[in-house]
Amino acid sequence: MLALTGGSAFGRTPGSPPDGIHAGRWILAPYFITTVGVDDNLFRVHECGSEDDASCEAPQSSTINSFIAGLAARAPFRNSALELRYEAEKLDFGDFAPSRDLEQTAGALFQFKFGTGDTLTVTETYTQGITDVRAIDEGGELEFEDAPFNLNRIEAVWRRTHPLRQGFVIRLARVDLNFDGDELVPFFDYRGFEAAAEYRQPIPGMKWLTFYYGSRRFNHYEANDPDSVGIPFRKEEGDTLQVGAGGTLRGQTPFNLLVGYGKYRLLGTGSEYKGIVGSADVAILVASRTNLVITLRRRPWASQFDTYYIVNSLIVRAERPFMREFMVGVQVEHARNRYGEPIDMVTLRKDRRYGLEAYFDWLVHPRMSVRVGAAHVQRNSNDPVAEYEANAITAGVRLGWF
User: Fold this and answer.
1) Quick one: 272 exposed, middle or buried, by C-beta within 10 A (0-12, 13-18, 19+)?
2) Exposed (0-12), middle (13-18) or buried (19+): which is 236, by Cβ within 10 Å?
3) Is 141 exposed, middle or buried (0-12, 13-18, 19+ CB in 10 A)?
4) Cβ neighbours for 140, distance < 8 A, ≥ 6 positions apart
5) Which pTM value belongs to this model?
6) 319-332 core/surface letters (b: 16 or more CB in 10 A; e: else)
7) Pairing mode, if any, of strands 308-322 and 165-179?
């Protein structure tokens, strides 16, 4: 479903002048969003192709209406800042009554900038959600299954970044996910750490070489299973070494490239991946007005089954403003998933995911914008149960500080 995301004031660079309501030392940025839409396959099920197709279900069409209220608050001090954020979304799925119809996110950010130019950022974000599966399953295997979850992420980042000087980024995060309720869900709880260290060596032309190491250590737990409380059924380990480059091309085109070798293991299953991983991002200004952003990713993710899957994804987004108040945008996504071991099949499962999204924005007032859009998503697979096709149409209005 298309969304008008909120809270852009949260996480600003210290020293930048935020927009909002001044209340003593605090700068407040409230916002309100309301959306109406319809989705013709809410649960992303495999549609019946024939009467004897036992793997299919009847797709459920549903209206999706929501109201979001949020507040970002920032208190600068010296060259640093404290920021707080809260957002609540009331959901209405028409005839379908979800287990949780109120999603909430609360966060705090402490940002300290030192005289050396170093910046220390500490954030904590707690989410009570139900539909945003990308928050808990970034590989995209999970679909909406009416499974309410709680996600807590604490992260600390120490960085020294300047295009003309040697720099580094050190990151450590603690992530904890658990599903609410007592019904089994087609996914798993997880708890563990992510860590990364990156060194940047400047080279001529406002660019730098990058040397990167990343690590993941997680325990996986059976979700809502009273017989295995606190006992992991498998462990996830991942290590990545990458090299690359970043900076700007011709002074206007920011880019970042990393490619290298990764080793990924799901202990307890024997599933293991060794091979190439990488990412690339570039933002191009076309014909002076069209912004074109291209994103490439290749990396393994833990599956809900006893294996991993490799995701190769490409996302291309183009946006073009006109007449100052209007903007049109298109986003195309293509992903190929390949599983490491067979899943109840003789052959390995392979998925192809296609997504197309188009939207139109109208800035009615500096404190009011309107968006209408449509989206199509489709997954093809050599496992018919994994196939689906869905379409959505959405309209929304946003009020407040963007």
Assistant:
1) middle
2) buried
3) buried
4) 133, 134, 311, 335, 337, 353
5) 0.90
6) beeeeeeebebebe
7) unpaired
**Which residue matches tokens 């999603």?**
103
Residue 51 amino acid letter: E
- SS3 state of residue 246: strand
CB contact set of 158 (below 8 Å; sequence gap of 6+):
118, 119, 120, 168, 169, 170, 171
**Assigned token pair, 336:** 């190929």
Domains of the chain in sequence order: 21-400 (2.40.170)
Specify the residue for token string 């707080």.
84
Distance separating alpha carbons of residues 37 and 227, to the nearest angstrom: 40
Cross-strand bridge partners of residue 340: none
Q: How many Å from the N-terminal Cα to the C-terminal Cα in the chain?
A: 20
Model confidence pLDDT, tens digit, residues 342-393? 987 778 999 999 999 999 999 999 999 999 999 999 999 998 888 999 999 9
Length of the chain, in residues: 402
Give CA 303 to chain center in angstroms.
Answer: 17
Place of tokens 């050599």: 382
Contact call for residues 184 and 224 (beta carbons, < 8 A): yes
